[in-house]
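Quick illustration, no need to memorize.
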Amino acid sequence: MRKYFGTDGIRGIANKMLTPELAYRVAKAGAFVLAKHSSHAPVVLIGKDTRISCSLIESAMTAGFLSYGANVVHLGVIPTPAVAYLTRELKADASVVISASHNSYEYNGIKFFSNKGTKIDDSIEEEIEELIYSDKINQLSVVDDKIGTDKVDESLKDKYIDFFAKNFADIIKENKRDDFVVGIDTANGATYEVAEKVFSKLGLKYRIINNTPNGVNINKDCGSTHLEKIAKYVVDNKLNLGIAYDGDGDRCLAVDENGNIIDGDIILAVISEYLKSEGKLNKNTLVATVMSNLGLNKFGEDNNINIKQTKVGDRYVLEEMLKNGYNLGGEQSGHVIMLDYNPTGDGILTSLMIIMILLRNKCKASSFHEKIKIYPQVLVNAKVDNSKKALYKEYKEINDGIESLEKEFKNNGRVLIRPSGTENLIRVMIEGEGKSYIQKKAEELAKLIEEILG
């Protein structure tokens, strides 16, 4: 079992679990692995979100990369999908995003991307992890003119902004309405500057909130994990749509003109229907995860769209897409991957697709709810000892509790138990009729898990 890398890179409380020493070693090991597969000094891009600890981690990683001859280009505060896009566009050897995504400010993380703009393979992560605290890493060094160099080039963000203009400017201009105004919540995170520039360049009317980061307010009661803020703002200001990104900008959720939530499953349904109508949905297939609502499967059946399910995690969605030639996939949480544009979840891209569909169809955002019936679903987190979370099935009392619920909801819902890949949690999800009842059942099981594994 890997100690550092989870389903979304390395993540932990900055300067506690995720220390500068660890960041240095991770970068040095990464430089060594990259150099093995390259005939030249590797070039690594580094992007970050707005957390107070990003400079600490970035400085340590820069030292690690340079110490083994990799050259670094600093992109500044920039969304994760922009880093993925620029990695391919600039033909860099790899890139790193320093962010803890939707987590609160005290956390931070390290995500590696390959030269294709996709998250690096598990095998590469394992190779890096083996080196981190081995004796070998202390022997790795270069001297003289082999030492790496670094530079700052925040102007590269403009290439990402131009990417949206190239793909959406004409169609939005053709269908633009003067009375169409969008509310945007950037979660005081990585999209706080770029989103506003994209919407301005496309000539879209917008109102923006939570775009004044101070290092500690990222995701704080705002963004895609706290939709109540943008919902109230949209209703109070009579806007047509509300968009909310997460801290690193790879997720997007929305609210309609009445403040009702448009989650990832609804977004996937709407985009897949649109692409199918345009003959652009590869193999008539949408890739989702086991966490997606039962309603998405029903939507697929009713609209002759195949739904393929993977393990939870956008990396597994992407793996399935690449393996079988699908071009649309995502998660209920708002990760939406459109491979015709970018090889990772992209919040701004997702929001522009939603806006384009609304403008072309001349419809209200509330009409999206008519396309898919969302079944009641509850998710309760059980806080556990991190060393025990993968072993929950070995405890008879927990296993018996799970089997009892699975039997109860076999014909009118489902039960899903999943250890978190990034936190000390086991997630208990129940789907079925009667939200108060399934909430009670989920809480009972989560309490039992905490008592045994906490």
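The chain has three domains: 5-157, 168-370, 377-453.
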